[in-house]
Amino acid sequence: MQTETPPSAAVFSPLLAAQNIYKTYRKGANEVPVLKGVDFAVARGELVSIVGQSGSGKSTLLHLLGTLDRPDEGEIYFEGHRIDNLAPAGCDLLRNRHIGMIFQSYHLLPELSTLENVLAPLMIRHSTLGYWGKRREYRQRAAELLDTVGLSHRLTHKPRELSGGEMQRAAIARALMAKPKLLLADEPTGNLDRQTGEEILEVLHQLNAERSLSIVMVTHDPAIAARADRTVHLVEGRVEQGDRAAA
Amino acid sequence: MYKLLLCWRYLRTRYIALASIISVTLGVATMIVVNAVMDGFAHEMQGRMNDILSDVIVTSRSMEGMPNPEWHMDEIRKIAGDEIVGMTPTTQVPAMLGYYHRGQYVTRQVNVIGIDAETYASVSAFGRYLQHPKNREQLSFDLREDGYDVLDHQADNSAKAKPRVQMKKAGWKHRREEAAFDKRIAVAPQPTEAATASSDSPFAGARPPEGTTFDPATEQHEGCVLGIGLCSYRLADGTDQFQALPGDDIEIHYPSAGRPPKFLHTKLTITDVYDSKMAQYDMSYMFMPLAKFQEMRGLVDPESGIRFVNAIQIKLQPGADLNAFRDKLRDHFELHLYDVRTWRDMEGPLLAAIQTETLVLNVLLFLIIAVAGFGILAIFFMIVVEKTRDIGILKSLGASSGGILGIFLTYGLSLGVVGAGLGIGGGLLFVAYINEIADFLGQITGQPVFDPAVYYLYRIPTLIEPLTIACIAAGAIAIAVLASLLPARRAARLHPVEALRFE
User: Fold this and answer.
1) Which residues numbered 57-76 in A keep a CB inside 8 Å of some CB on B?
2) Do B397 and A68 touch (CB under 8 A)?
3) Fold of A13-98+181-247
4) Among candidates A111, A135, A113, which has minimal Cα distance to A122?
5) C-alpha angle B47-B48-B49 in degrees, rounded to nearest 5
6) Distance from CA of A109 to the nearest CA of B (A)
7) Is the Cβ–Cβ distance between A205 and A47 less than 8 Å?
8) With bands split at pLDDT 50, 70 and 90, how would you rate the model's confidence at B453?
């Protein structure tokens, strides 16, 4: 696997780094500690998988990395900038431009067609007029992206008319639309059969290899995790030391 | 952009939300119809009031009146001549009206108004309500031969007007017949028998014969115009039953000028009848020539020949500021001698009552729309719950809380716009065809919805005020937006992780 990094000044700083993360959820009167001091880093162009039992906190960690939630303690840096205490507007911007996300249950908007779903991040980014002025260009790009993931024949279909694999491909295209530096994937093959899951993984690996897109993939399947550059094991809210798969 | 797109898709796919705005639509339509009809009636009524009262009236505070109206009119012209279209002196006194109807002496309370036939038309559209077409062109107090309207000329649909059959013979023809009849019964040995025998004729008055010098068959007394309510009554089916017609003689009993007032009696001949559709005028005013009236009441100074009048009615150019004009005159004329009022001042309490009525009705109807707002609130909460995961997705794609708030506010706004738009369309359509609808309902139920016999008007008057419609629409849209504010805020505050996990 290639681990090329872009020739920039920040070659040796990781793209994303989390230090000593703590997160506790409150369920009624009970406090459930989910993450208990996790350290985690992703280098540029790296494909890292996070494995662990359900309840080990891997999804929570992914949400924290994607600024969907805030850690109780600890710090997260993206390209050397601290992001865990960003104002909401900053988080929105980060998610919109730099961090793409895909989910186990695809999370496409049911009212929009495949193409419109892919265009959604740009619609969110630009004002109505700004979007309208460049809509042709954006549509062109969205169509190209859908072609890359092999969905060029499904542009005008609604999500309910797509199969699971097709929906996940659309979700990947949507995540790529904003040209992110990092892709966070939460069990991307969890709802798919082995064959389809394999195809999705193939797409992700291809993106990692061809576009040197950094990917963090959460999975509970050790077989899938093993194919990543590096695997991080989460056990009961802590990273299990010394059990790292070599690149 | 995504706000508009999603709003549009939600509008097209969430029919339950459209159902929630039906009440907004109905409320808006109802308000438009009610306002159009209320304004229509008010406008119709005000127009007729203005027609009869003219614009500004200078009245002397004493019933003895003010001397030398020419001097007064010159003064008024000096103050604000350029705005004046017409001016006329009038004089007025409360009196008792009496006439024979089927052998019975009918008396009525009446206000006798002396008018100058030449100039009165320049201040008042009173002529428009007369029954003889020629009198409508130029009022004359000479009895016409015949040709009085049988069908009400103010009805735009003559099929709805109940014919006034008695009017067919009104005029000299009727007068000559009556005179011949009177002559016959004057020599008849038993007048009571004659009266009962001819009781099918409503004009069989056992009238005492005139003096030898006056022949009713060829001569008339001084002419007068009676309000239709003074000489007729209306049957339940809307037919007007006349007790006295143009050509009949009447008598008025009135006080003279001077101290102490003497009780005087004068015979007049009805030369026309006016029908302003305003019961308060039709039942209390009669008009006669000013000069004759002044002589009768002793309003002419025997030495100098100076005449007295009670009031000067002034018509201004359309669009003139009546209140400003009134205030100018008030500054000039001594307040303790003259009362200067606009026609609105004279009918102030009535106009204020209508305004209050409209206001209260509008408040009540607007409450309907407010109730609809709660429907929108409930359904929006439902939609927010249903869309929880989508909200999480949008947030994970970088949509801000403000953006999510915007989606639902825009959704509420567009529902309000659609609801108000449909309401305006439906309301205007209803107003445009309100008379046809009333006729149709009348046919179905067999009970006339808008009965000319009751309302004196042949059509339901309507008036569309664009400002009113704009206010109603703005109010309805504001309520829809306000109702969506709470659910929208809830949506905006959803935690992205919890929203994503929502199943």
Assistant:
1) 63, 66, 68-69
2) no
3) Rossmann fold (3.40.50)
4) A135
5) 90
6) 6
7) yes
8) low
Average the pLDDT over B348-357 and give the result. 86
Residue spans in chain A of domains classed CATH 3.40.50.300:
13-98+181-247
**Average pLDDT estimate for B23-36:** 91
Tokens of B473: 């629409």
Average pLDDT of the segment spanning B264-272: 88
What number of residues does chain A have? 247
* Res B181: pLDDT: 80
**B392: alpha, beta or left, given left = phi > 0 and alpha = psi -120 to 50?**
alpha
pLDDT tens for B283-308 read: 889 999 988 888 888 888 878 888 88
Q: What is the ipTM of this complex?
A: 0.90
Token couple for A98:
């730099």
Q: Among partner residues A69, A93, A116, which is closest to B5 by beta-carbon distance? A: A116
Q: How many CB atoms lie within 10 A of CB B401?
A: 18
The count of other CB atoms within 10 Å of the CB of residue B440 is: 12
Enumerate helices (H) and strands (E) in chain B, giving the number of each: 19, 13
Residues of B whose CB is below 8 A from A120? 2, 394, 397
Which stretches of chain A score pLDDT less than 50?
A: 1-11, 243-247
pTM for this model (two decimals) = 0.75
